[in-house]
């Protein structure tokens, strides 16, 4: 049987991955999952920065820590690794040779840095006009901030994302709801990786039609601003600056986290019918008949009155009691699970979201499956995250063949 790598939708596509940390590697991993051959070039001696981002580290069969960081393996499966010094003449020759036999180059160096080595888009596209070259930076290739270093955390603040994330400022009169909050994962990096992969796929279609490559300019700040979605259009069309809503929704009530007798419950009432169903299930039908709460606009207007009433009701039963009662009434709700609960969830198990791959150092590593479900060309997982320089012989053989072309 053909491997997923051979039969994937990107089979035959070669990607030269010059990126490190998260946004670029995440893009490269997505392309690898879809069948592309991804060659990861790393710094000699230390490799990708995230190789040293631990603990935690992957454990071996005896339960002892290895040198493999759990951060690195999150974004680098499916790749082949070679260590090359880009500052050396020989290293530049090797990378240029690899670019000439690749369809796509991914890089996340500072603006202008690779031009010093003749490895920028302008230089390489002269030699290979069909080359797709994707640059990922904090602020893009143009504009007054182009040469600034970009970090996920800082971009979450600059984009407006953190201004709407965190407890409401009126939640605590003395602390103003506490400080704004970042997301629990590096969301700017991850979303930029996804946007970058989508752009590469579109560029590959364009090459197939026209044989013309192109430069893709991805900026973390652009992506995070775009991700603000309806918050953007709300401000741009009303002039009103949205603030923090905590775990509540800006425009829907009740749509937030509530405390139960033994934990927390997400209640996500999206329309008036669902609110009436909730009130019936909760034994408070009078609230649904109250003009202050009968419609969503009225509930939003009277949020400060309604929410305390619901809080008093919901603390009377356990989380599971409410979930059983509300699901039976077709009211959207759910728990807030820790990762230990997530990977025991029967739906998550049924969907195969946890995968295991053999690993040269750890024996096996546990990873999270690609969420794309494709009937004809599903994602494949032929290669585990590589050791530093693990595939040198194979890649040097490719470089030698390229030199003979």
Write a compact overview of the structure shown.
This protein is of the alpha/beta class and 405 residues long. 38% of the residues lie in helices and 16% in strands. It has helices at residues 4-7, 23-33, 70-73, 89-100, 121-127, 152-158, 187-210, 220-227, 229-238, 272-282, 285-289, 296-301, 303-314, 319-328, 339-342, 346-350, 392-404, and strands at residues 14-17, 37-42, 57-59, 65-69, 79-83, 104-107, 132-137, 214-219, 255-259, 264-268, 333-335, 354-359, 363-368.
What can you see in these coordinates?
This protein has 405 residues and is of the alpha/beta class. It has two domains: 4-227 and 346-404, 3-Layer(aba) Sandwich (Rossmann fold); 255-337, formyl-coa transferase, domain 3 (2-Layer Sandwich). 38% of the residues lie in helices and 16% in strands. It is built from 17 helices and 13 strands. Strands 5-2-1-6-7-8 form a six-stranded parallel β-sheet, sandwiched between helices. A three-stranded antiparallel β-sheet has the order 9-10-11, with helices on one face. A two-stranded antiparallel sheet has the order 3-4. A hairpin with a 3-residue loop joins strand 12 (354-359) and strand 13 (363-368). Helix 4 packs across helix 17. The chain is elongated and about 80 Å long. Mean pLDDT is 94; it is low at 1-5.
> What's the number of helices?
17
User: Which consecutive residue ranges, at least 5 long each, have pLDDT under 50?
Assistant: 1-5
Query: In terms of structural class, how would the helical and strand content be classed?
Result: alpha/beta
The side-by-side strand order for the widest beta sheet comes to 5-2-1-6-7-8
- Sheet-strand content, in percent, reads 15-25%
Helical coverage, percent range = 25-40%
CATH class wording of the largest domain: Alpha Beta
Largest sheet: 6 strands, parallel
The domain count comes to 2
Q: What string, H for helix and E for strand, traces the elements in order?
A: HEHEEEHEHEHEHHEHHEEHHHHHEHHEEH
Radius of gyration: 25 Å
């Amino acid at each position: 049987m053909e491997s997923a790598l051979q039969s994937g939708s990107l089979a035959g596509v070669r990607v030269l991955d010059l990126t490190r940390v998260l946004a670029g590697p995440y893009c490269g991993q997505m392309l690898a999952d879809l069948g592309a051959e991804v060659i990861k070039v790393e710094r000699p001696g230390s490799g990708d920065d995230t190789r040293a981002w631990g603990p935690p580290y992957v454990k071996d069969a005896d339960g002892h820590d290895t040198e493999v960081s759990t951060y690195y393996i999150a974004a680098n499966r499916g790749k082949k690794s070679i260590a090359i010094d880009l500052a050396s003449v020989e290293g530049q020759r090797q990378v240029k040779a690899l670019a000439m036999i690749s369809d796509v180059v991914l890089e996340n160096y500072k603006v202008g840095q690779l031009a010093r080595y003749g490895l920028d888009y302008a230089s390489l596209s002269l030699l290979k006009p069909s080359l797709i070259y994707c640059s990922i930076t904090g602020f893009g290739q143009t504009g007054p901030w182009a040469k600034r270093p970009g970090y996920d955390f800082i971009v979450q603040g600059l984009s407006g994302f953190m201004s709407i994330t965190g407890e409401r400022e009126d939640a605590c009169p003395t602390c103003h709801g506490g400080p704004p909050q970042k997301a629990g994962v590096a969301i700017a990096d991850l979303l930029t990786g996804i946007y970058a992969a989508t752009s590469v796929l579109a560029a590959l279609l364009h090459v197939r039609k026209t044989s013309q490559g192109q430069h893709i300019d991805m900026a973390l700040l652009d992506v995070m601003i775009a991700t603000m979605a309806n918050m953007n259009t709300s401000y741009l069309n009303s002039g009103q600056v949205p603030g923090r809503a905590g775990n509540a929704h800006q425009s829907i009530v009740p749509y937030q986290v509530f405390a139960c007798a033994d934990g927390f419950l997400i209640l996500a009432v999206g329309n008036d019918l669902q609110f009436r169903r909730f009130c019936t299930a909760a034994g408070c039908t009078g609230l649904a008949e109250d003009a202050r709460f009968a419609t969503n606009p009225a509930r939003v207007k009277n949020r400060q009155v309604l929410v305390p009433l619901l809080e008093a009701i919901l603390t009377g039963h356990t989380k599971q009691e409410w979930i059983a009662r509300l699901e039976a009434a077709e009211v959207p709700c759910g728990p807030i699970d820790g990762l230990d609960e997530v990977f025991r969830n029967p739906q998550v198990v049924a969907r195969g979201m946890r995968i295991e791959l053999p690993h040269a150092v750890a024996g096996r590593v546990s990873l999270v499956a690609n969420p794309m479900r494709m009937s004809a060309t599903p994602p494949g997982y032929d290669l585990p995250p590589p050791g530093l320089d693990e595939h040198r012989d194979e890649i040097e053989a490719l470089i030698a063949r390229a030199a003979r072309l």
